[in-house]
Amino acid sequence: MSIADTFAKARAENRAVLVGCMPAGFPTVDQSIEQMIAMHEAGCDVIEVELPYSDPVMDGPVIQKASDIALAAGVRTRDTLKIIEAVASAGATVVLMTYWNPIEKYGVDAFARDLAAAGATGMITPDLIPDEAGEWIAASDRHRIDRTFLVAPSSTDERIAMTVANCRGFVYATALMGVTGARKTVSSQAPELVARVRAVDPAMPVGVGLGVGTGAQAAEVAAFADGVIVGSALIRSVLEAPDRATGLRRLRDLSSELAEGVRDR
Amino acid sequence: MSVERLPDLSGHFGRYGGRFVPEALIKALDELEAAYRSAKSDPEFQATFQDLLLNYAGTPSLLYRANRLSAALGAEILLKREDLNHTGAHKVRNVLGQALLAKRMGKPRVIAETGAGQHGVASATAAALLDLECVVYMGETDTERQALNVARMRMLGATVVPVTNGSRTLKDALNEALRDWVSTVETTHYLLGTAAGPHPFPEIVRDFVGGIGVEARQQCLDQLGRLPDAVAACVGGGSNAIGIFHAFVPDEGVRLFGFEAGGDGVATGRHAASITGGSVGVLHGNRTYLLQDEDGQTIESHSISAGLDYPGVGPEHAWLHDTGRAVYEPVTDDEAMAAFQLLCRTEGIIPAIESSHALAGAAKIAPRLREELGRTPTIVVNLSGRGDKDVHTAGAYFGILDKVEPVVPGENT
């Protein structure tokens, strides 16, 4: 399903979209596919595959650790594309989250082509702002990949307008000034930021990420946003599990809990 | 050559530089740029900065004609003695400028990344002087290697945070400082230690350290009545090099040479030579040359010099390289250490191992320039720092450390 259809369907059901994030190749290529399919089956509407990167400045300790494990196990960019292909074939809507350098190194147009061929519908770029994204905008248009840029509580109204104008699919609102990672409470800055995006473009779906880790928090965010993005809490359920089966079970349980949350707005 | 005003309005040096950071930081970068523009044209800010440089940091630094070294290298060597500055390196110029800027922006806290600890010590120094809170991120591997500098920073009142993720070195300290900054940007200035990172840092750092070249150029005119044939500097991130190059860029007759850390040799893959041994990509907020694998993952750098042990380089150097205005070459650990020893023995000056790369480079280009010019060439070498911090590394390299049993307090010794 396309990103637009996924959000439209959720809107029709009066609920928010649940986006679940998992690094590609963590802890191995096969296990990451298994985990992503489990998340999909347990209620994640969108699987956000994160391409592991050596210098993830937007990520907190959990995603850093998972990325390090994946890289140490030898995961390559082409493995990430294979993983996307496997998860998309299982019926999931897949977007890629990636820092910019691996894409530039692969070749921007070639990557957009191969990403589309693998079945991903969109790409989130945490360290690429539209101001620097000329080549990406052209390539993603050519190969029909939805573009998600970030907005932050510190973004000026002018920048929010410019950023939203360059997004297609959904815009990623970082709920707080900080890096990824579950927090005890949902950021008080998030509702205002979502409102500021809506003021610019009421039709553009807004996904809120950073700091959400429980069903109750998902419900809280679902009350004011179109999408709830969860990463670290899901990853931690695998990271801290004593064995593979327990990790998968905890991952399914948390995904279900979050899926209920986005329906309880 | 016609000198374009760089960076351009969007913060690029040709295709290099720019801003590759999370959106959350853009407002802070815009504010920093605006604060810098207004400070640059504010006579009071400039007077305060110049006063600190003159009366606190001890600049202008000397331009010293090194006669015995000159005889050994077959060139007239002039040393720009940045090693004599307060805190022992050119870095004091940058930290004083940026700390004043933090004050001007009303930010009570500064954060910094450091590798060997030199930028951390300089930042802690400026923070103490200007009454700012200071937090320094340092890779855990480096806090162990550089325990004395950790103690120095703490003496000066700074908090040192050992970084335990990634390779636990400078690049990871930089990542962690960026993560802190995303969370604390309202109250915190990121006191970046080199002429790299997202715009406007490469420009700000260049301008604050640019006095090195302005002074050296005037000192050449005063002492020689002419400009030198070449200027040589070491390049890690590249702040000392851009600091001495910048004033000479319009002088077509002055050749500019940047010497990167060649480690065990560029061919071995164990080096920190981003321009001569790397490729173009994006790291730490800017497009530049860096060490990366075929997937664009950063490769760890290797150098005997902790200050040059960084897998990227400032974007203006990338541009100067592509345009051919400056020439970049690698210098191996062994070549640098030979130059280190030569300066100790000929001039009674213990240089930083970083600066020893510039000395070794000068030794390499001296015969080439002599042939090209048909006379003895004049080379200004930026002696960017002193070697006290490197005594342990150099002592171990040369095998001249006596084995001393550790003294256990309370025992008879």
Automatic annotation (TrEMBL), chain A:
<dbReference type="Pfam" id="PF00290">
    <property type="entry name" value="Trp_syntA"/>
</dbReference>
<dbReference type="InterPro" id="IPR011060">
    <property type="entry name" value="RibuloseP-bd_barrel"/>
</dbReference>
<protein>
    <recommendedName>
        <fullName>Tryptophan synthase alpha chain</fullName>
        <ecNumber>4.2.1.20</ecNumber>
    </recommendedName>
</protein>
<dbReference type="GO" id="GO:0005829">
    <property type="term" value="C:cytosol"/>
</dbReference>
<comment type="pathway">
    <text>Amino-acid biosynthesis; L-tryptophan biosynthesis; L-tryptophan from chorismate: step 5/5.</text>
</comment>
<comment type="similarity">
    <text>Belongs to the TrpA family.</text>
</comment>
<feature type="active site" description="Proton acceptor">
    <location>
        <position position="48"/>
    </location>
</feature>
<comment type="subunit">
    <text>Tetramer of two alpha and two beta chains.</text>
</comment>
<dbReference type="GO" id="GO:0004834">
    <property type="term" value="F:tryptophan synthase activity"/>
</dbReference>
<keyword id="KW-0057">Aromatic amino acid biosynthesis</keyword>
<feature type="active site" description="Proton acceptor">
    <location>
        <position position="59"/>
    </location>
</feature>
<keyword id="KW-0822">Tryptophan biosynthesis</keyword>
<comment type="function">
    <text>The alpha subunit is responsible for the aldol cleavage of indoleglycerol phosphate to indole and glyceraldehyde 3-phosphate.</text>
</comment>
<keyword id="KW-0456">Lyase</keyword>
<dbReference type="InterPro" id="IPR002028">
    <property type="entry name" value="Trp_synthase_suA"/>
</dbReference>
<keyword id="KW-0028">Amino-acid biosynthesis</keyword>
<dbReference type="InterPro" id="IPR013785">
    <property type="entry name" value="Aldolase_TIM"/>
</dbReference>
TrEMBL record, chain B:
<protein>
    <recommendedName>
        <fullName>Tryptophan synthase beta chain</fullName>
        <ecNumber>4.2.1.20</ecNumber>
    </recommendedName>
</protein>
<keyword id="KW-0028">Amino-acid biosynthesis</keyword>
<dbReference type="Pfam" id="PF00291">
    <property type="entry name" value="PALP"/>
</dbReference>
<dbReference type="InterPro" id="IPR006654">
    <property type="entry name" value="Trp_synth_beta"/>
</dbReference>
<dbReference type="InterPro" id="IPR036052">
    <property type="entry name" value="TrpB-like_PALP_sf"/>
</dbReference>
<dbReference type="GO" id="GO:0005737">
    <property type="term" value="C:cytoplasm"/>
</dbReference>
<comment type="pathway">
    <text>Amino-acid biosynthesis; L-tryptophan biosynthesis; L-tryptophan from chorismate: step 5/5.</text>
</comment>
<keyword id="KW-0822">Tryptophan biosynthesis</keyword>
<dbReference type="InterPro" id="IPR001926">
    <property type="entry name" value="TrpB-like_PALP"/>
</dbReference>
<feature type="modified residue" description="N6-(pyridoxal phosphate)lysine">
    <location>
        <position position="91"/>
    </location>
</feature>
<dbReference type="InterPro" id="IPR023026">
    <property type="entry name" value="Trp_synth_beta/beta-like"/>
</dbReference>
<keyword id="KW-0663">Pyridoxal phosphate</keyword>
<dbReference type="GO" id="GO:0004834">
    <property type="term" value="F:tryptophan synthase activity"/>
</dbReference>
<comment type="subunit">
    <text>Tetramer of two alpha and two beta chains.</text>
</comment>
<feature type="domain" description="Tryptophan synthase beta chain-like PALP">
    <location>
        <begin position="58"/>
        <end position="385"/>
    </location>
</feature>
<keyword id="KW-0456">Lyase</keyword>
<comment type="function">
    <text>The beta subunit is responsible for the synthesis of L-tryptophan from indole and L-serine.</text>
</comment>
<comment type="similarity">
    <text>Belongs to the TrpB family.</text>
</comment>
<keyword id="KW-0057">Aromatic amino acid biosynthesis</keyword>
